[in-house]
Design brief:
By secondary structure, the chain is mostly helical. The protein contains six helices and no strands.
């Protein structure tokens, strides 16, 4: 598994299997989980210098397939206060994993 896939897997494993999203009263919807995954993939591809829309679309589909079970586990988890806002504003995947989801 390449570095990008490992990083996304680690981040989504954190989301899906821990209580890191437990400070907010609302629970993650499938749209919230999709948005977090899309942002992680987008940032990772940008960090690696990918700009080809066809390649980006293919990588997104690959990640969605790889992390399908984690996406399902993410749904219903409690969201950290400001977590989605942080994910949306993050400029790199490290910030998402170290600040937004902790």
């Amino acid at each position: 598994m390449n570095k990008m896939l490992r990083l996304c897997f680690v981040v989504f494993t954190i989301i899906a299997t821990s209580g890191l999203l437990s400070c907010r009263r609302e629970r993650a919807t499938s749209q919230d989980c999709d948005e977090m995954l899309e942002r992680i993939v987008q940032l990772e591809l940008e960090e690696r210098g990918f700009h080809d829309p066809a390649l980006i679309d293919r990588k997104r589909r690959e990640m969605r397939n790889l992390l399908a079970s984690e996406l399902k586990e993410c749904q219903g988890k409690r969201l950290k206060a400001g977590g989605l806002v942080c994910v949306r504003a993050a400029r790199n995947t490290e910030r998402i994993s170290h600040e937004c989801l902790r």
